[in-house]
Write a structure and sequence with these properties.
The protein has eight helices and nine strands. By secondary structure, the protein is of the alpha/beta class. Strands 1, 2, 3, 4, 5, 6, 7, 8 and 9 form a nine-stranded mixed sheet that branches.
Length: about 240
């Protein structure tokens, strides 16, 4: 009798798994070129992947996230080898036609200047001309904007860039607000963020076009997160503490 019941239960379980919606949640693999605190660092999650996980979770999808160099990440998503890219500006759409933008933005990137002189004021990129400027090689926005300036130095990493500032080999260095603050703190270099930002750029989540049907759902999930306070709580927990001394 017990054996018969067990057989019937096993049969019912198999039938339930065959019903629509009973399969495991869909899992996508996303990539990013972002650095901490926007991307994971060891076991510590980043801001962008935390926001994305919650948005995907709300539409019943799990995600994995890995970090790749800039061009490789775009090529992988454009070809469909990977499913999406966490943070990109709309400029990528010109050269990568298979990327589909989720129209509700993930965040704004504030591209700012840093100095150790708290009294320094800079009005846009033109205001950088009198100073010795440092930036990370490969950051296209800075390479384009300061390429003709007389005194400039490019280095391989944010850490090395802030050491330029610390050692007096640069008067001003350039990065986005959050990745810069994180790198400066980890390099042990006290810095002053010069306001306002040189440029503010909206950043979006992109998917390969085969996932285009998910775009309105994800956009709605991000809007919902902002409306119900979830998004701001993630900002307050993961980013705002970096502004404290």
């Amino acid at each position: 009798m017990i054996k018969t019941i067990q057989i019937h239960l096993a049969t019912i379980l198999v039938l339930l798994l065959m019903l629509p919606g009973a399969a495991r949640a869909q899992r996508l693999h996303l990539v990013t070129v972002a650095l901490p605190p926007l991307a994971p660092s060891g076991e510590q999650p980043g801001f962008a992947d935390t926001v994305a996980r919650e948005a995907f979770h709300r539409i019943g999808i799990d995600i994995d996230v890995s970090m790749l160099p800039g061009d490789r990440a775009l090529l992988n998503v454009n070809s469909g080898l990977d499913d999406g890219d966490l943070l990109r500006s709309p400029a990528v759409e010109r050269d990568y036609p298979n990327l589909v933008r989720v129209p509700e933005k993930m965040m704004d990137f504030d591209f700012v200047a840093y100095s150790q002189n708290q009294k320094l004021h800079i009005d846009g990129f033109a205001g950088l001309k009198p100073y010795v400027v440092g930036y990370v090689a490969g950051w296209k926005i800075y390479e384009q904007k300061v390429k003709d300036y007389r005194e400039q130095t490019s280095v391989p990493s944010l850490k090395e860039m802030f050491l330029l500032l610390k050692n007096g080999r640069a008067e001003v260095v350039l990065a986005d607000r959050w990745q810069g603050l994180w790198a400066a703190r980890n390099a042990g270099v006290p810095v002053h963020v010069i306001e306002p930002p040189l440029v503010k750029s909206p950043m979006y989540l992109y998917l390969n076009k085969r996932h285009a049907a998910l775009v309105p759902k994800l956009s709605g999930a991000l809007m919902q997160m902002k409306a119900d306070g979830t998004y701001q709580r993630i900002v307050d927990k993961m980013l705002r503490p970096l502004e404290l001394p």
